[in-house]
Amino acid sequence: MRNSYKAIENRRERILNILSTVPSISIQELSKRLNVSEMTVRRDCNKLSQMGRLKQKLGIVSFVSPETASNSNSRERIKRSLGEEAVKSISDNEIVFINSSTTALYSIPPLLKKNVSIVTNNGNAAKFLSEHNVASLILSGGNVNDRDIMSGDIAQRSFSSMRSDWSIIGCAGISVEHGITTPVIEEANINRTIIKNSRHLIVVADYSKFGNFSNFTIGQVDDIDVLITDPFVSAKTLASFRKKGINIIQVPQI
Questions:
Q1: Which of 64, 84, 107 marks a domain boundary?
Q2: For residue 142, which of 25, 48, 154, 208 is within the disulfide window of CB 3.0 to 4.6 Å?
Q3: Per the structure, how many domains does the chain have?
């Protein structure tokens, strides 16, 4: 009988737990500790290596921590990969809301190559415009802060008067218990409107956002259709989101 997805995820989580306690370990030793074949361990390690969770060399594997990966690849590359992955769900002729998140902002360059309409309160989106763009970019207007984020009544009315096919949002924290949260009160109501007026919601959140919560709740996990994150979020954590029927995508570390 073939292993269930849950059993495979649990075994890979055990591999990572073992690796977090030792500098390195052989495939053979992992096989003994897990009581499975070396072929099974090698297959698991190959997958974890592709995701950027461990390194392999001559049958020896070693752990890659989020901090190590962030130092070598930078948090910005992680955020960029999440934003770019979100675009794959979106088709031509759709309307897309983007919130003020820096991670969500990375979805705009590839979105501009599609025949879509983008609505955002992030003024930084304008820097991606060029003569080669296909998409329509609409800035919400409103009070502009030192991060070029727009808020206030004008921004609120812009999103309230429209409906989108998709929204791509980032957040300060996300958990099943506390939902999707942000620390900025001026942006909280806009984010709530973005979620309310969207047919489908994509949340992009790196490992550091899980289990955290901030001052203002902008939505519940039940609002999420697609959750995109990196390989460093544990299988146990993601299982609680899967129970809610959320489609979870873990983007391999580049």
A1: 64
A2: 154
A3: 2
Short-list 34, 8, 22, CA closest to 60:
22
pLDDT in tens, 226-251: 999 998 888 889 999 999 999 999 99
pTM value is: 0.78
* Residues in the chain, pLDDT under 70: 1-5, 66-74, 253-254
Range of the domain at 43: 5-64
For 162-180, the DSSP string reads --EEEEEE--SEEETTTEE
CATH number, residue 202 = 3.40.50.1360
pLDDT in tens, 17-30: 898 888 899 999 99
- Report the CATH number that the domain containing residue 37 is assigned in CATH: 1.10.10.10
CA separation (Å) from 196 to 10, 97, 139?
A: 35, 11, 19
Please name which of 161, 153, 152, 148 lies closest in space to residue 101, comparing C-alpha atoms. 148
